[in-house]
């Protein structure tokens, strides 16, 4: 991930590698996922944003990491349409999707924590999307502190006056 992002910067001006490191930290410390998910959190933007391919991920980290990264870039890649959906295959799909969803939540949380560097229209779009989709998803998964932080950060951008009033109290 460090090599793939070496010359890239985020809108904040900081090196791009800081984002996947923060996503991996959230995945490990705040959600409690294991090594494969941490690896995937570190690599989650590489296939989309750099020259790294899914074949590179598979070669270096194995087929499970490849499926998760593929799922993070396009959810349909997780499902193997050539295999019948027997119980075991369905279970594997659900487990892969759960990793994808949890890493995506960690990714969104870090993006919300650094939203101030975005244009106002982007802030509103991302904050609204977070409030509508990601916060309820975190709630449904029992990730209450992440849900609350996503809601608080969304309010900061969608209703700044109300947010300031609440924080001042």
- Give the biggest beta sheet: none
Proportion in β-strands:
under 5%
Terminal CA distance reads: 42 Å
Order of helices and strands: HHHHHHHHH
Shape, please? globular
Poorly predicted sequence stretches spanning 5 or more consecutive residues? none
Identify the quaternary structure here. single chain
What features would you describe in this structure?
The protein has 169 residues and is mainly α. Helix content is 70%, strand content 0%. It has 9 helices and no strands. Helix 4 runs antiparallel to helix 5. The radius of gyration is 17 Å and the shape is globular. The chain starts with 17 loop residues before the first helix and ends with a helix.
Summarize the structure.
With 169 residues, the protein is mainly α. The chain has helices spanning 18-31, 35-43, 46-49, 54-61, 63-73, 87-113, 120-140, 144-158, 160-168.
Task: Tag the structure with descriptive keywords.
mainly alpha; 0% strand; 169 residues; 9 helices
List the helices and strands and how they pair.
Layout: H1 18-31, H2 35-43, H3 46-49, H4 54-61, H5 63-73, H6 87-113, H7 120-140, H8 144-158, H9 160-168
Helix pairs in contact: 1-2, 1-6, 2-5, 4-5, 5-6, 6-8, 7-8, 8-9
């Amino acid at each position: 991930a460090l090599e793939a992002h070496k010359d890239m910067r985020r809108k904040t001006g900081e090196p791009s590698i800081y984002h996947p490191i923060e996503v991996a930290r959230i995945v490990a410390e705040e959600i409690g996922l294991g090594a494969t998910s941490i690896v995937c959190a570190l690599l989650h933007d590489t296939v989309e944003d750099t020259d790294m391919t899914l074949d590179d991920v598979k070669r270096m980290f194995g087929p499970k990491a490849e499926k998760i990264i593929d799922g993070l870039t396009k959810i349909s890649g997780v499902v193997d349409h050539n295999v019948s959906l027997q119980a075991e295959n369905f279970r594997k799909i659900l487990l892969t999707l759960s990793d994808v969803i949890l890493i995506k939540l960690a990714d969104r949380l870090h993006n919300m924590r650094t939203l101030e560097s975005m244009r106002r229209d982007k802030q509103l779009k991302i904050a609204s999307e977070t409030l509508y989709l990601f916060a309820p998803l975190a709630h449904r998964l029992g990730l209450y502190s992440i849900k609350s932080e996503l809601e608080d950060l969304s309010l900061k951008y969608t209703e700044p006056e109300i947010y300031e009033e609440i924080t001042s109290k």
